[in-house]
């Protein structure tokens, strides 16, 4: 087996073990039992469990977020694009495995801040960067008025999925169903676009309402 393939095998097995048992519940020997091979080979790739844990977190985030990074807008309509992208985010961050990893990283982040940073950079920050790209394009095209697309992307993401994600993370008895998640995304996009409408569009709307009155 090539070294790169061996590393992927180790990371996949380690990720599954960490999610199932937690950080403290997994040893390097446990990982070795899953993948086979020699201890020397395992330690050639990862010097200790902390390094393996961080690499596993980064790999899981990268693998799960592939649909977001390869996202193609359904059409030219900005609302449809943002809503579809929100659906991709939901499919990524609201799964039982993603919630379990989020809890695990949160539990270890104070003691292992580098793992928390890796999770944020390969997870939320990477996804929000994709969202910010479309907001930046819309701003440059004169469709919306936002000063900071990256900050707007973070705010829109929270509006779309923050409540559902928090309820799952805290094991709330009021778990969101698919219909509620879709409605949350749709409402968040609608409110966001209304709040970021360019001034000419807002002026036209006010004129139309005045004429109607």
Describe the structure.
There is one protein chain. The protein is 77% helix and 0% strand. The chain has 12 helices and no strands. The radius of gyration is 21 Å and the shape is elongated. It is an all-alpha fold. Helix 7 packs antiparallel against helix 8 (113-122).
Distance between the termini: 75 Å
Q: What is the global morphology? A: elongated
Largest sheet: none
Low-confidence stretches: 205-210
Relative helix content:
over 70%
Mean pLDDT: 91
Estimated structural class: mainly alpha
Topology:
Elements (H helix, E strand, L loop, with lengths): L2 H19 L6 H8 L3 H7 L3 H16 L1 H4 L8 H16 L2 H14 L3 H10 L1 H17 L8 H21 L8 H18 L3 H14 L1
Helix pairs in contact: 1-2, 1-4, 4-8, 6-9, 6-10, 6-11, 7-8, 8-9, 9-10, 10-11
Summary tags:
213 residues; mainly alpha
